[in-house]
Amino acid sequence: MTEFLKNLGISGGLEAGLVPVALLFLLGLLVTGLLIPNLRLYALEKGLGDKPNERRLNKELLPNVGGLAVFAGVLASLVLAMILKPAILQTVNIQLLAIVLGGAILVLVGFIDDQFELPSLFRLLIQFLCAALLVVNGISIDITWLPHWADIALTLFWVVGITNAVNLLDGIDGNVGGLGFITAMSLLALSSQFTARGAATLLLAGLAGACLGFLRHNFNPSKIILGDAGATFIGYTLAAVAMLGTVKVAAAASLIAPVVILLVPIIDTTQVVLKRILRGVRPDTPGKDHLHHLLLQRGFSQRRSVLILWGATLLLTVISMVIQRVNPLVIALYALGTTALLALAVLLRVQEASRAVAPIKEL
After folding, report:
1. 49 phi/psi in degrees, rounded to 5
2. Is the model's pTM score more than 0.85?
3. Dihedrals phi, psi of 59, to nearest 5 degrees
4. Residues 27 and 213 sit within 8 Å (Cβ to Cβ)
5. What distance, in Å, lies between the first and last C-alpha atoms of the chain?
6. pLDDT in tens, 272-323
7. List of residues 6+ apart from 111 with CB closer than 8 A
């Protein structure tokens, strides 16, 4: 197996321990998937959820606490990682703790916002503080020909921008859960090519598993949603991990890969902000001008709209791997494996929804 992985060009986390990576993925999936039913029932009992209104697509109270389960899944996988691979994680323990702490803060603030609607400027301030937490712990973009202050500014803009871009896509069932899974899997495939990124590989394995475990309950018709707590956590973690272990880059071209991978949320946020500015309204004003809204307006169903956005994200991740000259066999295994797992999660959810509807039709 080790020789086979070497032939694929895979090193670091996978070569050092393929089994631990698989275990972290499965643990993230199981913890998240098993927590969701109880969390959903608790949320319904306490009225914790998105109530129907003119902007939302749900017709009844929809629990918005799914992000808590995703965070718990990632946290459980990291605890296991500390036990199984202390050598790989030893040099970046502080950095991983910084990501977890920043993510935990965003989950807490996001959960409060989901229930009580905090001021947007306050949420933005918290996001910048969480981004700064990464910088002071050595997780940042470091372009050799840029002054240090410019690297810091670029890092803050990257983290806050991606955090919000991913969150803004969370307006339709399964969108961010699927995007988070696809992106985490692609970054995992890329990080596994470098020994220095073993810690990122392990963290991404847990995140990918947690997103897939959540998606099993979130594909249309959704039983639970991420809420701001989960969407901002996924966006923040992806933005942070994209920088983890990269150390220094000699040119801005080295940033192309993560930008391409996350191009769907970047395009969505950019076009929304520009449209709203041109209309003379604040960028954070609620509206139905996101990519998923545009697809729905063209007559696509929720399911087809999500599948289109998933497909675009998957294509972009493949393009990113080609740009970085990843082994074609690795690209093929990634694309096929990711597609198969997504299809399985969707199939299970659709079958479950069909069984729930069948008795009602009989009555």
Report:
1. 180, 175
2. yes
3. -100, -5
4. no
5. 55
6. 888 888 888 887 777 787 898 899 989 999 999 999 999 999 999 999 888 8
7. 65, 67, 68, 227, 228, 229
